[in-house]
Design goal:
This protein is α+β, with helices and mostly antiparallel strands and 149 residues long. It has 4 helices and 4 strands.
Length: 149
């Protein structure tokens, strides 16, 4: 009887090793984890936690879709297409992060500077506060205009 248990344990171990070998072989040609798949996993986790509190089927479906999309990207063998998607995502992500950083900087400096827009080209300009009425020169288009700081 104990012999059958030992044989069963070895059979399970062999099946597990075979599964590991197949997964290792599959992952050699796969895309792997990149920024987009990592962020999709993170979004799935956040939506899953949010679903605990909201108990919404829509949030649940979004969470599962995010998980499946991330797994699709990780196990995909079309590396050139996944690389292009990741580069496009990184471009948009960088734009968003830089806008947030610029907004944080403006909020931190709002007591010392005032931000204006050039009426000619729309360029954002920074002028010192509490200078009264000043003439502002736009470095982009060369337009001069008066404003209060």
């Amino acid at each position: 009887m104990w012999f059958n248990n030992i044989v069963g344990i070895f059979m399970i171990k062999d099946r597990f090793n075979e599964l590991k070998r197949r997964l290792r072989r599959r992952m050699m040609n796969a895309n792997g984890i990149d920024t987009l798949s990592r962020d999709a996993l993170l979004a799935g986790m956040v939506l899953g936690i949010l679903n605990i509190f909201l108990n919404s089927s829509f949030v649940y479906v979004l969470s599962m879709a995010s998980y499946f999309y991330s797994l699709f990207r990780i196990f995909s063998t079309n590396k050139s297409r996944r690389r292009f998607e990741n580069e496009t995502y990184m471009t948009y992500r960088w734009r968003l992060v830089s806008k947030v950083q610029n907004l944080k900087k403006q909020i931190a400096l709002r007591k010392a500077y005032r931000y204006l827009k050039c009426p000619n080209c729309g360029q954002k300009l920074r002028v010192p506060r509490k200078q009264g009425k000043i003439e502002v020169h736009c470095p982009k288009c060369g337009h001069h205009f008066d404003s209060r700081s």
